[in-house]
Amino acid sequence: MRLIVSYISGLIFGIGISISGMANPAKVLNFFDVAGTWDPSLIFVMGGALMVTFVGYRFVLHRPAPTFEETFKLPASNELDLPLIGGSAVFGIGWGIAGFCPGGALPALGTGRSEVIIFTIALVSGIFAAKGLQRLSATKAASV
Fold this sequence. Notes:
By secondary structure, the protein is mainly α. It has one domain. Helices cover 70% and strands 0% of the residues. It has six helices and no strands. The protein has helices spanning 2-20, 25-32, 41-60, 82-98, 102-108, 114-143. The termini are far apart. The model has no long low-confidence stretch (mean pLDDT 88). Keywords: Membrane, Transmembrane, Transmembrane helix. This is Sulphur transport domain-containing protein. Pfam families: DUF6691 (PF20398). The chain crosses the membrane at residues 41-61, 82-110, 116-133. InterPro entries: DUF6691.
């Protein structure tokens, strides 16, 4: 059942990303081009997502536990540290350069376009590099 719910959730997300045009890097890049061909539609997509998330969290977090997990997996800290700020900066720069965020790139993989495949390979490589740096940092901290 858990796999079916995950599949349906991902399918709905992918359809929403595709319908909104956010799987098209030109549409996303036009949002950042405020002096040229600015396209404000990304604001409405993000606003809609924030409203659904805000309402959804109000209902879900009143439950004692998630449906398919033992506990909620929420951040333990709300501290703004270097890894959070650095990761956010890398995410934003990558999004601005490529026109893809991970959420928009995954549904776009179905198009088979080379730029989506290259972006996804770079994304996965970056995830592994970040994990490696975290392990390296933890090892150094433990040895001090």
